[in-house]
Amino acid sequence: MLASLDDFEAQVVGIASGVGNYDSGVHSHKKAQLLYAPTGCITIALEQMQYVLPPTKAAWIPAGIEHCARMQMREVVTCRSLYFDTASFIDLPDKIKIIGVNDLFKQLIERMSLWPWDMPAEQQKNLLSLFIEELLVAPEEMLPLPIPDDPRLKPWLAQVMSGETLPQPLNQMAKRIGASEKTISRIFIRQTGMPYQAWRQQWRLHGAIVRLAEGRSISEVAFSLDFSSDSAFISFFRQHMGETPNRFINA
Questions:
Q1: 39 domain residue, yes or no
Q2: What is the model's pTM?
Q3: What's the rounded Cα separation, in Å, for the pair 134 and 43?
Q4: Are residues 184 and 101 in the same domain?
Q5: HTH araC/xylS-type domain spans which residues (predicted)?
Q6: 143 in a domain, yes or no?
Q7: Does residue 200 belong to any structural domain of this protein?
Q8: Which residues span the domain enclosing 194?
Q9: pLDDT digit string, tens, across residues 29-68
Q10: Cα 69 from Cα 89, distance rounded (Å)
Q11: Is 228 exposed, middle or buried (0-12, 13-18, 19+ CB in 10 A)?
């Protein structure tokens, strides 16, 4: 399918699908891509960074950028992908962007994802112009989680990123890895640019966004991410996102 999309001679190709548990594997496209989930949440890995895409965010992925999209949800994720022939456009972004999606942008994505692949370019012109205008002015909302690649962390990291285990406090994590706390701290600062505790909190924030997008309750999310209480989780979320979990997911 990916090869056929890249080889299809159209300035824009749209796909609308419903996906359950899914892992795309690492791949790239000859075309630029906009990836969006109107319901559910997509986790995407790009250039040693992980991002989450709830219904308020979309990812712009330039042509040739290797990435991996994962969906591990209790319910089906509705997925929208738009692929752009970069030779047909001169003003598309040339870097990775995680952007906010307002109501107008959402409707444009939905409309274009359902276009017939053989729609004449002249019929696409007006909506495409409005789409590109919205794409270029959409606010960037990156919220990245840098992924360390030290060999000593790989088994532990694989379990954490798959959701098999939670990232423990530093002293417990160091014992599990079999390294000192100072060594673990140096690895994270060198490879992610942040102390381990800050990385752990960012991971929990990503986990919270994914779970909220699944429709889980505040209590479920707080318990699954090892917060001491619902109020502790709400306070944590508000501190990092500037709004309560309910307000965020209903935006």
A1: yes
A2: 0.87
A3: 23
A4: no
A5: 151-251
A6: no
A7: yes
A8: 148-249
A9: 999 999 999 988 999 998 789 999 999 999 999 999 999 8
A10: 25
A11: exposed
